[in-house]
Amino acid sequence: MKILVCISHVPDTTSKINFTEGDTKFDTNGVQFVINPNDEFGLTRAMWFKEKQGANVTVVNVGGPETEPTLRKALAIGADAAIRVNTEAKDGVQVAKELANVVNQGGYDLVIAGRESIDYNGGMVPGMLAALTNANFVTNCISLEVDGTNATAMREIDGGKETVATSLPLIIGGQKGLVEESDLRIPNMRGIMMARQKPLSVVEPTNAAAETNSVKFEKPAPKGAVTLVDADNIDQLVSLLHNEAKVI
Amino acid sequence: MSVLVYTESEQGKFKKVAFEVASYAKAVADQMGTTVTAVTVNAGDSSELGSYGVDKVLNINNGDLDKFNAAAYASAIEQAAKQEGSKVVVLSSSADSKYLAPLVAVGLDAGYASNVVEAPSSTAPFTVKRTAFTNKAFNVTSIDTDVKVVGVSKNAFGLVESNGNAASEDFSPAISTSGVTVQSVDKATDKVTIADAEIVVSGGRGLKGPENWGMVEELADVLGAATACSKPVSDLGWRPHSEHVGQTGKPVASNLYIAIGISGAIQHLAGINSSKVKVVINTDPEAPFFKAADYGVVGDAFEVVPTLIEKLKAFKAQNA
Ligand SMILES: Cc1cc2nc3c(=O)[nH]c(=O)nc-3n(C[C@H](O)[C@H](O)[C@H](O)COP(=O)(O)OP(=O)(O)OC[C@H]3O[C@@H](n4cnc5c(N)ncnc54)[C@H](O)[C@@H]3O)c2cc1C
Ligand SMILES: Nc1ncnc2c1ncn2[C@@H]1O[C@H](COP(=O)(O)O)[C@@H](O)[C@H]1O
């Protein structure tokens, strides 16, 4: 089985979010970048397929040279090869079109992407990629089994989950549940050494066009101070929630 | 030209988000000087949509669509948009709609903006405000294609009533078979879901162990709320993963969020920030959650929560 794992390179969850150039650009100063958490679950599931069922795992990112350490980390975790499509995409559809080109050229059976990236939160790349490549698609995917060309997946829905039967070629939008938190791997020394020998190919973009344009960023309005209620005076809390906040 | 909105129903009844996206579509239609057409799938009486600004309803009644199927639903919505010549298609942020929207966007060669929190600030260029960086910021985005797809964030726009009349028509799009088939659905029908809840009651590691969740559930019961938890609580197996909220869990956009024994780590706050009113109950006055909350009680959850339940019961009895 040939698996492609789409890796989005995102600010670490502890990052403070600031903007520069008149609030038009994300300020990367002092920000640590990591593999998007949803993609890390997907990558780990891909490693499971590789080890238990035999699979070749390629990771891909659409981005500039600064994303290579993130791809190297994925190689150190155990992916066999990496591809970087050398362009700074302006929106999700542009990423999806570049990925579609990679998928079409590579003939992958299974493409594992994340439900959503934690930076732009588009939640659009995997679905668009599936539509562009005519593959089956399951998002919010919390479990995935593959048997030959058949696949069974579980999808989280509002208030529960649903089990679906599908087949390869398949694209999923994965999340926690695909593997457990405790299954996530930290690259070890050997993995890091081996990653240096593994191929990371840089391919030029097809120059697919974006369809949306980021005009500017805004930060949420600063919050007012908290109203403290004495633990011995919970009546007051009930009254505030009713009369002031009007939420009960 | 009308603005098209997908109004979701469940067992024949419209979900609340259906009225919210209809209200949003009405605001867009007013700005563009056009009308609102809703698409429904196996919904019952659709006249209610008129009260939220819908002028016309395309009712799809098709047994093949009884089970949700993203590709088939997306294709039906595309066909409706083409029939109506719609330039704007509006969807909600439910799990199903977020699944559909990218497919609809590709099918219509439309640009897509998700998690939109306000009516467009301009319709030419079509400019909307959306959340980004998991609620740590907003991004003002223009959609530059002829047809636009907008995903509206839950509880951001609200319900806006208007006295309209929704004329309904049968609509029978061509449905092709899809390669994804639902085999079973596992859903608690008696519980309020985090996605739909107006109020969410959430517990953290401060509650010490799963055996102490009785009071959290009771508080949720009294309030008609959904229950949620912090990430370590689900990682420890005290609560199911589906209750994990935060930056890497489910987002919460309720009217009221009550955090019990949760410290308020940045990743937790990112996911619950768009809740309107936040209450924290924590023994530690230095807990970061107090900086993010509207109301706070410094105290032991094991004393505060039972008292709160009692007071709320009394309040409800009085206001019944
Ligand atoms: C990549 C990454 C992603 C993450 N994503 C998320 C996420 O999506 N959601 C999330 O929640 N976390 C997330 N986290 C974890 C986050 O950093 C915190 O560790 C977590 O939110 C802490 O959970 P907690 O507040 O329940 O526990 P703790 O930090 O242990 O806090 C417990 C709190 O309970 C209080 N307490 C103790 N006893 C009592 C009592 N008797 N009564 C009242 N209060 C009491 C304590 O004062 C303390 O403030 C993520 C972390 C990482 C690294
Ligand atoms: N620039 C990118 N390169 C590779 N994969 C990406 C990129 N952006 C998004 N993805 C994938 O698409 C998923 C959803 O991203 P998004 O649609 O941006 O929320 C991510 O979890 C990744 O798997």
Word description of this protein:
The complex is a heterodimer of chains A (248) and B (320). With 248 residues, chain A is an alpha/beta fold. Chain A has a single domain (2-214), classed as Rossmann fold (3-Layer(aba) Sandwich), CATH 3.40.50. Chain A has helices at residues 37-53, 68-77, 92-106, 125-133, 189-197, 234-244, and strands at 2-6, 9-11, 19-20, 25-26, 33-35, 56-62, 81-85, 110-114, 136-147, 150-157, 160-167, 170-174, 200-203, 212-218, 227-229. In chain A, the strands form three sheets. Chain A has a nine-stranded mixed β-sheet, with helices on both faces. In chain A, a hairpin with a 2-residue loop joins strand 9 (136-147) and strand 10 (150-157). In chain A, helix 3 crosses helix 4 (125-133). Chain A is globular and about 65 Å long. Chain B has 320 residues and is α/β, with parallel strands linked by helices. Chain B has eight helices and 18 strands. In chain B, strands 7-11-6-1-4-5-12 form a seven-stranded parallel β-sheet, with helices on both faces. A five-stranded parallel β-sheet of chain B has the order 15-14-16-17-18. In chain B, strands 8-9-10 form a three-stranded antiparallel β-sheet, covered by helices on one side. In chain B, strand 9 (126-132) and strand 10 (137-143) form a beta hairpin. In chain B, helix 2 crosses helix 3 (95-107) and helix 4 packs parallel to helix 8. The longest helix of chain B is centred in the last third of the chain and has 19 residues, at 301-319. The model of chain B has no long low-confidence stretch (mean pLDDT 96). Chains A and B meet through helix 3, helix 4, strand 9, strand 10 and strand 11 of A and helix 2, helix 3, strand 7, strand 9 and strand 10 of B. Strand 15 of chain A pairs parallel with strand 18 (295-298) of chain B, so a sheet runs across the interface. Bound molecules: flavin-adenine dinucleotide (FAD) and adenosine monophosphate (AMP). Flavin-adenine dinucleotide binds next to helix 5, helix 6, strand 17 and helix 8 of chain B.
